From TrEMBL, chain A:
Superkingdom of the organism of origin: Bacteria
Stated name of the protein: DUF4089 domain-containing protein
Stored InterPro entries: AtzG-like
From TrEMBL, chain B:
Species of the source: Acetobacter cerevisiae
GO molecular function terms noted in the UniProt entry: catalytic activity
Domain of life: Bacteria
Amidase domain boundaries: 21-429
InterPro entries linked: Amidase, Amidase_dom, AS_sf, Carboxybiuret_hydro_AtzE
Protein's UniProt name: Amidase
């Protein structure tokens, strides 16, 4: 299975969990945007933070 | 179109009536909007009725608000009583009309201002271009062959073209700052949470902010006072302010003329130092991921049933966002807390940070790219390069147009971001007005410089 096929299979499985069907016409765009987001996810997850750095749920600058 | 302060003054002085101003504004929009596609709907009946009420109040000698009779427009995501809020989409067209105005619209109306038009945007505010599959592309009034920027492109183009003296927009990742910069108008992204979002269609709720656009910094201060209820002192001494020029991430790929204009601006400041923020790429990534996830979650229900009714560019991004796993979204919000603390520490050393708003002038419509690292990349996805990281920190930012270089042709607008600590809008606006007075900030209206090359 190619990397692209893997991505599509993973996306469709996740979408099914959310009761979402990705229309065939949308797949190329969704795959492209997923790859773009994955680059940002990799950047984010590469940063280690102390456990006491909490998510900004109640954000007040 | 003259400034909103001038219009309000002339109406109060009886030199012109509010009805005349509104009629003239509606007529001007009808005659000129087709060139720019900034306006989506005109509100003749409501506007003329409100204007007549202003005139009647003045005739009776009653007190009127500071913006009495000033026409304004709103991005298509602000509720206006009796109208369906489209947010630039068609999927909301069957929603019921709004029962009341958005709170910020109500505040402007309470100050006497009059809504006359709704304005184009990227669908659901997801873009930096104002290229809308349903309502068309908004063109840059300074060169109609170029992008206006987005997502509040209708709001900035309307001010730049001289159609309106005051408009409202929203900013999640740069949707006030990017189009303000490309269209050469003033914009304000206030401190996160300062202005109410009631009646504003959300995009990424934890990052969304609303703010005004005007053609002068004094007008911007006036609009901010009406929106926030805060008084902005215009006579602050700004000569002692400590200014930080953002380096590193914010110095990449800048057009030479932008660097030269920023140099001129900062040469006029007494205390300037260079500031390099850490981990800006990750801050931008966090903003990107939070936006995609929150936007995707908001639209998931409709994406299940009406996906093909969305603008394809918006739809595919929202779907990808809805499918993100939880861990990076939570981690992005943790980076946000960390980055906020970095900015707080920075503002112990400086009063105002200065950064470019974009890398250069507005991209052409037929070549919608910008150059990053020597490569041509999509403008729609990357125009927020310098604005997205700062959204994450939630600080107030004035989008300020740089003045044209003295002795040279006016050219196309370029803009900077002036950033301050939370709640320091008054300092930013005082600095902006001081720099506009000495000719370093501010850009002429497009009716003086229009280039309609196709």
């Amino acid at each position: 299975m190619s990397e692209k096929d893997n991505t599509i299979a993973r996306l469709e499985a996740t979408a099914a969990c959310l009761d979402l069907t990705i229309p065939e016409a949308c797949l190329p765009g969704v795959v492209a945007n997923t790859h773009l987001l994955q680059g940002y996810v990799d950047l984010i997850c590469g940063m280690t933070l102390p456990d006491t750095c909490l998510p900004a749920y109640e954000y007040r600058p | 179109m003259t400034s909103l302060i001038d219009i309000a003054h002339r109406i109060r002085a009886g030199e012109v009536s509010a009805v005349q101003i509104v009629q003239q504004t509606l007529q001007t929009i009808r005659e000129r909007n087709s060139v720019y596609n900034a306006v989506t709907r005109l509100l003749d009946e409501r506007a003329l009725k409100a204007a007549a009420e202003v005139d009647a109040c003045l005739a009776r000698g009653e007190q009127v608000g500071p913006l009495a009779g000033v026409p304004f427009g709103v991005k298509d995501l602000f509720d206006l009583e009796g109208l369906v809020t489209t947010a630039g989409s068609v999927v909301l067209k069957n929603q019921p009309p709004a029962k009341q105005d958005a709170e910020v619209v109500r505040r402007l109306c309470a100050a006497g201002a009059i809504p006359v038009a709704t304005l184009n945007m990227d669908e659901f505010a997801y873009g930096f271009a104002t290229e809308n599959a349903h309502y068309g592309t908004t063109r840059n009034p300074h060169d109609t062959a170029r992008l206006a920027g987005g997502s509040s492109g209708g709001s900035t183009a309307a001010v730049a073209a001289g159609l309106l003296p005051l408009t409202l927009g929203s900013d999640t990742n740069g949707s006030i700052r990017v189009p303000a910069s490309l269209c050469g108008v003033w914009g304000l992204r206030p401190t996160q949470g300062l202005l109410p979002l009631q009646g504003v269609y959300p995009f990424a709720a934890s990052l969304d902010v609303v703010g005004p656009f005007t053609s002068t910094s004094a007008d911007l201060a006036c609009a901010f006072e009406a929106l926030s209820g805060q008084s902005v002192a215009t006579d602050q001494d700004v000569s002692g302010l400590k200014i930080g020029r953002l380096d590193g991430w914010f110095a990449q790929d800048l057009a030479p003329e932008l660097v030269a204009s920023m140099d001129r601006l900062l040469d006029a400041c007494a205390d300037v130092r260079t500031v390099t923020l850490p981990e800006v790429a990750r801050a931008r990534a966090a903003s990107f991921v939070i936006t995609a996830a929150e936007g995707g979650a908001l639209h998931l229900g409709r994406l299940r049933t009406q996906a093909m009714a969305y603008d394809p560019a918006t739809r595919d991004r929202l779907m990808a966002g809805a499918l993100l796993p939880a861990m990076p979204i939570v981690h992005a919000q943790r980076i946000r807390s960390w980055f906020r603390d970095v900015l707080h520490d920075t503002f112990r050393e400086v009063d105002i940070l200065v950064a470019p708003a974009t890398t250069g002038v507005a991209p052409r419509l037929d070549q919608p790219t910008i150059t990053l690292g020597g490569k041509q990349v999509s403008a729609r996805a990357n125009l927020g390069l310098f604005t997205q990281p700062l959204s994450l920190a939630g600080m107030p930012v004035v989008a300020a147009p740089l003045a044209p270089a003295p002795g040279k042709p006016v050219g196309l607008p370029l803009g900077v971001q002036l950033i301050a600590a939370p709640g320091k809008e008054a300092t930013l606006l005082a600095f902006a007005q001081a720099m506009e007075k000495v000719g370093l900030l501010g850009f002429p209206c497009a009716d003086a410089t229009l280039n309609t090359q196709a």
